[in-house]
Amino acid sequence: MKPMITILFVLAVAAAGFAALNVESFTCNGQSGTVVVETDTTMVCQASIKNGDSQNSAGLNSAKLLVNGVWADATSYTGGGFGTSISAGSSTTATFTGVKAVSPGPSNKFQSILLDDYTDTFVSDTTINVMAVKSLTAATSASSATEGQQFTVDSTMIVGGDPSSATLAASLSGGCSLAAGEAQTKSLGDLSNNDVVSRSWQVVQGSSNCNIVVTASITASSVTVQRTVPKTVTNPNAGSSSPTSSTTSTSSGGGSGGGAASSQTKAAVVKETPNSVKATFSSIPKGNSAVIEIPDDVDAGITKLVFKASTQIGSSYVNVMSLDSKPSSVADIGTGDVYKYIEISHNISEGSISAATLYFDVEKSWLGANDIDADKVYLNRYNSGRWDKLATSRINETSAAFSYSSATPGFSMFAISGEKKSGEAAPEKQPTAGETAKRTEPLISGEVVKIIMDYSPLILAVVLIVVAILGYFYYHGHRHLKKLPRKLRVKSA
User: pTM (2 decimals)?
Assistant: First the structure.
């Protein structure tokens, strides 16, 4: 029993040593509590680690900062610069550099700091408010105007993060001016993450081309984020002009019999992170096909999204993002191997969306590595707490990937999955009557054996403790018998 007590004492002392170290303060860029940072910028975070033992020193070999969610460019960051031997009651500082915020949002979190094998959750109280002007568009009611003619400038912004103030401002040059009563800078009031806000200005054309720069500004704490977009309204009498772009195009249907013309409205697509985009529309006329084309340098899970506007759609946005893993709030897909999870969010009324189709690629290397049948790749949609497999067609092939399309009744969470190739199963041997009589179920299933193997050290420890206890009572019980008179011992026998 004494060796066992010694082992337990050593383990208790070691556990107390780990618990003696704890994080007592945490900052990023010198800010604590709520930290404000612009998207795609890096932070320097510091944790003060204290040895709470007032009598003994404590050792520290590693410190790792763990991220909660996918808002940063990594899931963890390794600390440096701390002391490896912390004297009783003293503190040391671990510095985490290169912490890059890549996804805008107001309530991003860290999970914990690993001090060697001990988890300290002090950092979970820190909130990272990642700010960005996610999208900024500007449009003019006229591409050309003569001197004295009035036109309108409309601008729409999508907010990322939680700003304390926001403005839209229009700067003019080239002789044009704001109409009487128009303010150059317009306050946008109290805004929250993903809010869409618009403002307009009345402008009077001058004697030359009117150059307009719209600037969006959002501020929280001491951090200000800005984004600009230029526009030009030409004066035909000024002798020069500037081309303007249009988001609406018209194409006629194919086939020998021709077809009715159909209009497309292409989104302005902005890369937000390496795996997400923000697509915005100033408006989508009823009956038009809205088209979102994902840039080649963004791995958003799909290559293109198309839907038809059942009604007139005003200023709107669609977010497309691929996820590294399934969100914990989403049920398992159940069957098949998952290639990618995709989340599509938007501010468009569901009744305004029809005939939606997603286009995506699946790399041949993944199909081969997982023995997936290229003709059994599907797009699955998660809606109302369940996964629905959507009709999916293979439409193209390159040397590196297969291309697919799939119609969907709406936008939400999606998963691209594939099923294994079906191989020929070997014929099952039919047992004889004698074999059937001898056949019995295994005494212990594979699952039970695995559990026993996994916990064998613990089981062995428990067995040793039980044996030690039984030995103790057996030994002391016989010593007691030796002290009894001979007659009593014989009688008791």
Answer: 0.47
